[in-house]
């Protein structure tokens, strides 16, 4: 477990920038924890406080009852072997082959040649680069470089893996494959993964929990699925919007949405899914039971951590009273719903 | 050219090679660690130490600001102390080495500084000690440029060693001045120039090749 207790970080000098303003956070063992923020929010500083690449100005960093903020340099070096890290620009040694890059942390602890060979071989297999072991980093693609970075970070059998914008320099397909690899590592080896990113898609793809940071302060944190369903802070709302659009599409708004029902208007309803809430065919039931027409205008259904999640905007067409009855029925169903308004009937 | 002159030329080549090799080797032994020190004691680096950084930097600047021909004469007492004499090829090695050390250290400083700090950070994150970072990250990563730095140093030292002839240092430069200039023997002058041009090109070629061979970027 990683615990931050009221961490602050101030950069000295004339400008005196306070990068972190009192951060308290707990990251559980074995989870994938995401920290999202815009550039300059302080997320990179925060993740560097975990392995003390940045020393906090005040506050405590505690990993499994050990207070890193109170350690000497040599104690810290020993502790860092339990914390792997991967970087946006990979930071591989250009003068070493793939094999030797992965062997690097093992060399640092003075491992024997045999131990290094067997360990590196199994890591090469894990990241799928066995056939590239004699290549130099300059001969690899971005995704392959990051795989080397991951293998290198895992060489000392860490309990924690820190990812600092690890996919930000990669294209979407490669990002996907790296994220899958990270998830696989988390499942197979039970390693706690902390991911720093500015992309909500990364959070959505693999994180269990997420915290959003802005101006050196944690604005909001919680389970990813909950945050996606109902973000409370403005910052998180913006990030959620970047991957899940819950606004009424422009085209519908142009029709002229009124908030009053009228005989010549149809009801716009938004359903919000979070998890498998019903086995009943809701839309079909409305149509059958109340003799109404239901048309889907806009939908966005996604899976977050294998849980369906999303929005569906439908227009319920027909008799005004039947519309009201239908909505009363919908309210009895275990699904969130709201009337967005009433649009003029077009046919 | 007479056989004596040819013999003289060969001796000159030997003397130049001797002066350049001795000063290059000593400069490498002292100048490379000094260059590394200038970087790692700098602001925000692994062994930040303003005091040490300032001292070394100032010494390097002082020596670098004195023209070689003046330095050579100015340090004659020191040369006598180290080499036992102030004239001759061995004596010329002292001022040559003294200029070579700060020259190389500044070049190496730039090469080491060019190593992406992300690599240092990554090594630190893996629990590497400062010494491990120097030996396993900074020096191997900067090696191709350090080879280039040494090539530049050798070429510069060949030039400087010609000036050492002025205090009786011997070598090709000495021969060119004494025979080519003072005795108007144009053939000696021409021969010296040809030897120097070939020598410098050869060294530059070897340096470029070695640097390229080590560069995996």
Question: Which labels suit this protein?
Answer:
heterodimer; A: 347 residues; alpha/beta; 35% helix; B: 217 residues; mainly alpha; 0% strand; elongated; transmembrane (chain B); membrane (chain B); ABC transporter permease (chain B); AA_ABC_Transporter_Permease (chain B); MetI-like_sf (chain B)
Could you give a short description of this structure?
The complex is a heterodimer of chains A (347) and B (217). By secondary structure, chain A is of the alpha/beta class. Chain A has helices at 43-50, 73-80, 98-108, 113-127, 142-154, 172-189, 200-206, 224-229, 234-243, 250-254, 282-290, 320-332; strands at 2-11, 17-27, 32-36, 58-63, 66-67, 83-87, 160-164, 192-197, 209-214, 217-223, 265-274, 293-304, 307-317, 336-344.
User: What quaternary form is this?
Assistant: heterodimer
> What is the residue-averaged pLDDT of chain B?
93
Radius of gyration of chain A: 25 Å
Number of strands of chain A: 14
Our measurement of the CA-to-CA distance between the termini of chain B, rounded to an integer number of angstroms, reads: 49 Å
Q: Give the N-terminus to C-terminus distance of chain A in angstroms.
A: 60 Å
Q: Work out the helix count of chain B.
A: 9
Query: What is the 3D form of chain B?
Result: elongated
Q: Whole-number radius of gyration of chain B?
A: 20 Å
Beta-strand share of residues of chain A: 25-35%
Contiguous uncertain segments of 5+ residues of chain B: none
